[in-house]
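Request: Could I get any protein with tokenized structure?
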Amino acid sequence: MFFLALMLGGRVVRIRRPHLADRVIALDLVAYITVCIIGTGAMLTGDGPLLDVALVLSLLAFLGTVAFARFIEGDHEKGAP
């Protein structure tokens, strides 16, 4: 879990990148690392509801990535003649 926390700290630094896509990818990775931390904690403690929290967080991260991809796709379509 210590290494997961280190990875999380490294990804937070990437959020300060200038491009929006870099920020979304960094936030996506932060969400998935957090899901790994929550899942590991749930397995170690035997706490089942934590797995539900991890599942909801991973679904929200996935839907956010899909929404961002559609946003980017819409920007490119508007620029076409």
Observations:
- The mean pLDDT is 80.
- Residues 2-79 form one domain.
- The longest helix spans residues 49-79.
- The CA atoms of residues 11 and 29 lie 7 Å apart.
